[in-house]
Batch of 2 targets.
Target 1
Amino acid sequence: MIDTYIATWNESDPDKRRALIDQVWTDDGRYVDPLAVAEGKDAIDATIAAVQAQFAGLAFRLDGPVDAHHDLARFTWELGTTGADPVVIGFDVAVLGDDGRIQTVHGFLDKVPG
C-alpha cells in the first residue's frame, strides 16, 4: 500500500494518478502536513499536482523500511534526484481504514529547502 502511495506522488499523468488515488485512498481520505491540508480525493489530487509543479523533475522514494502494526504505518521518504542529496525529507504516519486503504496521512517535514 505504501509503495503505491509513493507512486501516486510520482505519477504525472492526471488520469493514472487519479486511478492510483482511488486505489490507495478511502473516499473520505485526509492528508495533513505543515504546509497543506487536503480533505477528499479531489483535494489530495490537487495537492499532489501542486507539489509536482513546485518540484518538477524530482521524485519521491522511500528512505528505509515501512514500520506497520494494526491500522498504522510509518515511514520516511525523500524527494530529489537519483544519486543526489534529497531536497526534502519527510516522515509520514498513515492510518488505514477498515478496507485497508489509507484514511489519513499525518506528514512531518524534517528537511525543506531554505
Target 2
Amino acid sequence: MHWREASEQIAAIHSQVLRSELSPAFRAAPTAATAALATLLMAYQLWIALPSDDLSFAWQWLALAVGALLICASDLLYRWTRATRDERRRFAQALTQLSPALLVGAALTGDQLLRADLGNLPALWTAHFGVALWAARQYLPRGMTKVATFYLLGALGLLVLGDLALPARSLAMGALFGCGQAASALYLHRHYQSQRGNLR
C-alpha cells in the first residue's frame, strides 16, 4: 500500500513538473484570431472574389500568414516584457523548437514562387506547420499533439489529391487552418483555465 501511494505521489509530482515546463509563449486569443482570419479569407475567396490565378491565391494566403505572425509576435512581445526569467527561458525553448520547420517552409515557399510551381503550396504550408507544432509539443498542452497530427494528415490528404482547382484549394486552406487554429485555441484556453484552477 505504501509503495502504491508513493508511486502515485511521484507520478503526480512528475505531471506537475511537466506542466510547469509548458511554454507560456502561446495564448488562446491570438491563436483564435488566426483561425478567424483563415476562415474569413476562405469565405472572401469562395463567395466574393475568387483569386484570378495561382499566384494571386498564394500571395493572399502569404499576406494572411504575415498578418497572423504579427498578431502572435505582438502578443508575445507584450508578454515578454512582463515575463519572469523562467518564463522567458520557456518562451525561447518553444520558439527554438518551432523555428527550423517554419524557416524551411518559408525558404521552400520562396523557391516555389520563383519557379512558379504553386499547386502544392497548401500541402507544403500545412506540412511544415504540423512539423513545427510536433517539434514543440513538449512545451505545449497535450492536446496540441492532436492538432499537429491533424495538420500532417491534412498535408498528406492534399498531396494525395494533387493540384486542386482554386475553389477547392481555398476551401482546403480555410478548413485546415481555421479548424486547426480553433482547436489550438481551445486546448490553450483549457490549459490556462486548469492552471488558474490549480492555483486557487
